[in-house]
């Protein structure tokens, strides 16, 4: 079985949308759409991320902006250099390009997030923190 970190790295590679659903260690991801934008070099990607109770997505970043919308449950988001914020179903958060962040399910049941990214084409969608050109997240 792959580790959660390996799962996120695979999720960031260029895989087909038909094979995009992955579930490892309580964290699942399903790609919903990926389309080029009218601005050269940019694309939009939308995914649903499912978190089991108590599951944390490891610190990572994206090569563009993310809008996270909580569909179900409660998620605590930690963005580098900022205090943690807990969002409930129906709330959203803007995450600037390159910002190292993580999300944790702090509710009693499953949590679901709709993540929409406007990113540079040809770049991995997910880069784990601690890889080159990334700054580590501050300790909580």
What is this structure, in a nutshell?
With 140 residues, the chain is mainly beta. It has one helix at 4-12; strands at 22-24, 27-36, 42-51, 56-61, 64-72, 74-79, 85-88, 92-95, 101-105, 111-120, 127-128. It has one domain (4-128): Jelly Rolls (Sandwich), CATH 2.60.120.
- Contiguous low-pLDDT stretches (5 residues minimum) are 1-23, 134-140
Q: Would you identify the CATH H-level superfamily? A: Jelly Rolls
Task: Give helix and strand order, one letter per element, not per position.
Answer: HEEEEEEEEEEE
SS field, number of helical segments: 1
Fraction of residues in helix? under 10%
Beta-strand percent range: over 45%
Tally of separate domains: 1
Termini gap: 29 Å
Integer-rounded radius of gyration? 14 Å
Task: Tell me, briefly, the overall form.
Answer: globular
Task: Name the strands of the widest sheet in spatial order.
Answer: 1-2-3-10-5-8
What does this protein structure show overall?
This protein has one helix at 4-12, and strands spanning 22-24, 27-36, 42-51, 56-61, 64-72, 74-79, 85-88, 92-95, 101-105, 111-120, 127-128. The chain has 1 helix and 11 strands, in the order αβββββββββββ. Strand 1 (22-24) and strand 2 form a beta hairpin. The protein has a 6-stranded antiparallel beta sheet with strand order 1-2-3-10-5-8, with helices on one face. Helices cover 6% and strands 49% of the residues. Mean pLDDT is 82; it is low at 1-23 and 134-140. By secondary structure, it is mainly beta. It has one domain: Jelly Rolls (Sandwich).
């Amino acid at each position: 079985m792959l580790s959660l970190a390996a799962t996120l790295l695979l999720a960031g590679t260029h895989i087909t949308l038909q094979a995009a659903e992955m579930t490892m260690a309580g964290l699942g991801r399903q790609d919903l759409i990926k389309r080029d934008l009218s601005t050269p070099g940019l694309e939009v990607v939308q995914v649903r991320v499912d978190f089991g109770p108590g599951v944390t997505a490891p610190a990572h970043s994206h090569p563009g902006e993310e809008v996270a919308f909580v569909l179900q449950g409660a998620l605590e988001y930690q963005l580098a250099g900022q205090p943690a914020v807990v969002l409930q179903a129906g709330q959203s958060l803007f995450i600037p390009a390159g910002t190292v962040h993580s999300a944790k399910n702090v509710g009693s049941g499953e949590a679901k997030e709709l993540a929409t990214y406007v990113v540079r084409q040809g770049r991995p969608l997910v880069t784990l923190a601690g890889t080159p050109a990334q700054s580590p997240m501050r300790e909580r």
